[in-house]
Amino acid sequence: MAIDIENLIFGLDTFGDVAYNDETKERMSYEESLRMIVEEGKLADELGIDVIALGEHHRKEYAISSPDTVLAALAMVTKNITLGTGVTVLSSDDPVRVYERFATVDALSNGRAQVMLGRGSFTESFPLFGYDLQDYNELFEEKIALFHQLLANEPVTWEGKFTQSLTNTQVYPKLSKRLDVQVGVGGSPDSIIRAARYGFPVMLAIIGGEPTRFKPYINLYERAAAKFNQPAHPVGMHSHGVIADTDEEAKEIAWNYLKKSMDQIGMERGWSAMNRERFEFEITHGSYYVGSPETVAQKMAKMIQEVGVQRFDLVYGAGGQLQKDRFRTIQLYGEKVVPRVKELLRVGDNRA
Fold this sequence. Notes:
Layout lengths: L8 E6 L15 H17 L4 E4 L12 H9 L6 E4 L2 E2 L5 H14 L4 E6 L6 H4 L7 H15 L5 E3 L7 E4 L10 E6 L3 H10 L3 E4 L9 H13 L8 E8 L3 H23 L6 H9 L4 E3 L1 H16 L2 E5 L7 H29 L1
Parallel strand pairs: 1-2, 1-12, 2-3, 3-5, 4-5, 5-8, 8-9, 9-10, 10-11, 10-12
Antiparallel strand pairs: 6-7
Helix pairs in contact: 1-2, 1-11, 2-3, 3-5, 6-7, 10-11
């Protein structure tokens, strides 16, 4: 699928990592961190960034356990930016309640809500809400099927195993348009095929290794969509990044915070700690977009072309980071990186 340069979508994602105070260098309270995330969203909107997506987590490193609540706050203080998630863990939630909450955000924001459904790479929500991890796959299969029915905005009749049964049931609030739904995929072919079957757009979570290894998933999505007689929507990707005035400054921030975050996750999942060689590889050839605006823009333009995506979201704030550095990444992304990526892609397109 050719890149439509004029309609590329550029987003920002945050998992809600609790930030650090600029002066004291201590972690903020969860309350202050949540208020700062709203300020980050306001800044992104002012800069003309297309989307902000909030992750859902239920553990100490992260402030956002209820993304839709934060999005409702953002609906009141932003004008244009799409208000999304990355991801909503549908497996451990009630599809009816998820639909109602995001329909509410959509109404409050004048149609700007976007819910990204996923199984979740973290599993804390399953025991927290009374679900068995042995049912991990079945839960998502059943719940996405119910959610798909709810999108018709009509009475629902449904017989569930892991969900409630419904008989000609109306769900409110009613919307004048279909709710914007995406599916977040971490690298499972089954997830790609499932999204295509329901006609949902796909967002690829590319958090390590060479991004081009995900290109076959786009081809699989297009083939599956054709098989199910569904539209093959443009595919997006998200990856971690830090942007600063210089490459050296950005690398220092990423090494101090992004490495810490990835090492913590790796320790829980049996990965080895990141060494400097691996870190530099991820910046140069892998899935970290770290550096000055020009460095990040050059890599983004290259990967958008090579992977073949129509949307790119930069995951900012990993590991917490100083609040000023989070704001600086957002500002440089909106003011310098996004316009430069478009310029580079136009030049490349004209040379083709």
